Amino acid sequence: MLNFKLIYKVLGQLLFLEALLMSLCLAMALFYREDDAMAFAISIAIIVGSGFILKYKGRMAENSMNRRDAYLLVTLTWALFSFFGAFPFTISGYISDYTDAFFETMSGFTTTGATIIDDVEALPHGLLFWRSMTQWIGGLGIAFFTIAILPSLVGGSIRVFAAESTGPIKSKVHPRISSSAKSIWLVYLLLTLSCAVCLYLGGMNLFECTNYSMSITATGGFAPYNDSTGHFHSAFIDYTTIAFMFLSGTNFTLLYLTFFKRKFLSLFQNSEFKLYVLVVSLATMGIMYFLIRFNGYDMANALRSALFQVVSFITTTGVFNDDAGKWPHITWVILSICMFIGACAGSTSGGFKSVRGVILFKVVRNELRRILHPKAVLPVRVNGNLVSSSAQVTLLVFFALYMALCIFAYFCLICMGVDSTNSITIAMSCASNVGPTLGLEIGPTVSWNILPAVGKWICSVLMLMGRLEIFSVVVLFTRGFWKDR
């Protein structure tokens, strides 16, 4: 049976964590003496009260978590964090419609970065900071963060990790999952701090560099300015952003081994990382060619704009320094491919993940060989790890579900009157947690506010599924999940 008492108990503790993080935004609102302070105070009171209720319902819980408990816990955590996280927007009145507020918050926690706010610069500092913080919290995962700090999850932390971590191959830095979580969070913190320092040296003030660093290292995309990093018109800031987006799209376990364990060769011997670099390189060169030929860019601007957008799309960050909606349509195809492939598993990025691309390529190659040699034994190995037959089947099922969800969302949006190009790129953007879309009505620099309310709820669910890699959410809707045995 599902251990609901333990789930209530952990959810209550997590709500206390959300209230604590929101109190930082309250402090910022009080510091700047802006009108969102009361909204944060009321929201914190509601969240703390709800946390106590859940803790009370979970009293005397048995500290043992099975796989089904973990999947339900993870999905409920993201849903509840978004539900309560939307309160400051609606209570303050800056986003009057709760559907819009929930969409904005879910987009933040899932690091999608799609926004319904037409004028971001009209928001007070506290709400801007909360937008960026939602992405930073969601970057490595809310529940994954608790593995490092909450002892109540010790009994089932490996299952929570499996329910929330990204990619088909789970790698650990240490034998204990809590130690691995702390090591990966150390990498995340250092990336965030380093990015903030570099952006500060590039001319941003303290508030700006903090917000941008949280958004970039979480590969989220929310920015305190309407024109994102293009607001600064700085080559230094653009290339700094590119570097940290790229690093944040790399497997954090691999970064830990490379820079903390000094296993530098492991980075360049990793097949997923090599595919990641190859796709970025080829896509950048292709877009550079079209920008120079059709849009009259010089070499330097073409490199800067092309590399920035390619890294932004493949890492599913979504910040921009140029309007790709005005580029030749062939560049949209290239960026859509980057959006689909995604960066590395075990990073903060979304998408299909490069490691799945590596496995899929090897599966196809083996099948072609098997046509000529029917009795040959052809194992699939990635970085020395044997990919079992069941894992290969899971990959194909994941691909099928991903495509089915995108087609379903595309069909729904078409029925709501959204144009075809926007519909398919919106669906891919939500399922891959990218944020920007490509089209005439909703482009990379335009908000998603024109979507109908039902479309926003569909996109919110799709963002959650994309962040939790589909299976963790879909399994809740199967009959077997709710059976006692």
TrEMBL record:
Transmembrane domains' residue ranges: 12-32, 38-58, 70-95, 136-162, 183-203, 242-261, 273-292, 330-352, 395-419, 454-477
Subcellular location as annotated: Cell inner membrane
Binding site for K(+): 111-112, 220, 316-317, 433-434
Membrane topology according to the record: Multi-pass membrane protein
GO cellular component, one term: plasma membrane
Major localization listed first in the record, in broad terms: membrane
GO molecular function, a single term: potassium:chloride symporter activity
Name of a matching Pfam family: TrkH
UniProt keyword list: Cell inner membrane, Cell membrane, Ion transport, Membrane, Metal-binding, Potassium, Potassium transport, Transmembrane, Transmembrane helix, Transport
Record-linked PANTHER family: TRK SYSTEM POTASSIUM UPTAKE PROTEIN TRKG-RELATED
Family: Belongs to the TrkH potassium transport family.
Name recorded for this polypeptide: Potassium transporter
Organism: Prevotella pectinovora
